[in-house]
C-alpha cells in the first residue's frame, strides 16, 4: 500500500511551512526523570513525497536552535514503515522522538507501551472534528494528536447519471440498481473499492459492517462482535456485488491506485476511494475531468458510516526529549499548519473550522461532502493486536469475495479466528 495514498495518506504533507510559533505546547504526561525533557529530536515518517517537510522543519529549527529536529524518512510502503517503527520501539531505542503513525496503529503502539500518553494542555483538541479525536485515544487516555484525517467518498459519473435523469445513490439498493442498469447501458463496470487482501480491504469491509449497524470488535478490542445479523448484511452486500457482476472480478486485485485509475480512465460508474482522488481525476489528462461528482458512502437505508483514515503524531516512550517533542506536535497541529496541509498538500485537515471557510470551499468544492463523511466515520477496530486483526479480516473476506466462502461461512471463520487473536492464541 502506497504510504502517501493509503487509508491515511499519512505522509507529513505539503503544507507545513510555518514560522513564528511561540506558544506553549502539550506535555508528555510522564516525562523522563533523567533530564528536563528538552533537546534535539528526530521525527520519523514514511517517505515525504511532497517535498515540503524539509522547509517545515527548517522553520522550526530556525526558531528553536537548541531543539533542532532531524527528519528520518522510512520507505514509502506503509507495511514497511510500520515494521521499522515497531522494530525500533520494541527494542527500547530512543532513536525516534516523534512518530507520524497511521491512525490504525495508535491502539497497537499504545497497548504495547511504545508511545507515551500526552497531556492535552496546549493541544487544540476542542478545535477538531468530533469523530477525529477518538483515533488518538486508547483505554480512555490520549496517546497521540490527530494531524491528518480522511474518510472514504463515493465518486460517481455525474454526466451519465444526469443523462439518465438519475441522482447519485444514497442507499445500497440504489447503488446496486444503477451499477447494474446504467453501467451496462454504457458498457462500463458498476462499482469498485479496494478489494485486494490487504489493509484497504479491511477498511472496505469495516465500512460495510458498521454502515449496517455492526462491529468487528468492541470494548477497545477485547470482545469479538462480528457474529451478528448486521455484520452478515454488510459482508453479503459486497459478496452479492461480485456474484451478480456489478462489482467486476478485476476489483478483487485493486488497491487505491488501481481503482483510481479504473475510474479515471472511464471504466467505472462508481468508486469508493479517498479524497486525494478528486484532484487527480480533475486533471487535464483525466478522461472524467468535469464529468464526476462525490457524495457520502451509501448504507442500507441512507448514508453509511465510513472508516476514519489519516495520521496521528505520537511521542516515543523512551525519548529523552519528550517536552520538546510535545511542543513540536503542538506546532505541527496548529491552525496555520492545518490550512496549508489542505491548500498545499490536498490532505483533509482535522480542524473543524476549515471545512466552513468560504475561500477554501471555492478551491475545494468537495469539502462539505468530506466534512459530512468525516463526522459520520468511525475509527477502525481498536486493538493492541490490530495488525493481526486486519490480516484476518482481509484474508477471510477476500475468500468470500472470491466466492470460496458464503457470507455465513465467512462470519463463522471471522468469529473463530478473531477470537484467537483477541485471546492471544
Spatial extent as radius of gyration: 21 Å
Q: How are the strands ordered across the major sheet? A: 3-2-4-15-8
Q: Structural class of the helix and strand makeup? A: alpha+beta
CATH class of the largest domain: Alpha Beta
CATH topology of the largest domain: D-Maltodextrin-Binding Protein, domain 2
Structure commentary:
- The chain has 425 residues and is an alpha+beta fold.
- It has two domains: 3-150 and 308-376, D-Maltodextrin-Binding Protein, domain 2, CATH 3.40.190.10; 153-307 and 385-422, Periplasmic binding protein-like II (D-Maltodextrin-Binding Protein, domain 2, 3-Layer(aba) Sandwich).
- The protein is built from 15 helices and 15 strands.
- It has helices at 53-63, 78-90, 106-111, 158-163, 172-185, 199-211, 229-244, 256-264, 276-281, 322-332, 335-345, 358-363, 367-376, 386-401, 407-422, and strands spanning 27-28, 41-46, 69-74, 98-102, 118-119, 137-138, 141-142, 145-150, 153-157, 189-192, 217-218, 223-224, 268-273, 292-295, 309-315.
- Strands 3-2-4-15-8 form a five-stranded mixed beta sheet. A four-stranded mixed beta sheet has the order 10-13-9-14.
- The longest helix is centred in the middle third of the chain and has 16 residues, at 229-244.
- The radius of gyration is 21 Å and the shape is globular.
- The two termini are 27 Å apart.
- Mean pLDDT is 90; it is low at 1-25 and 30-34.
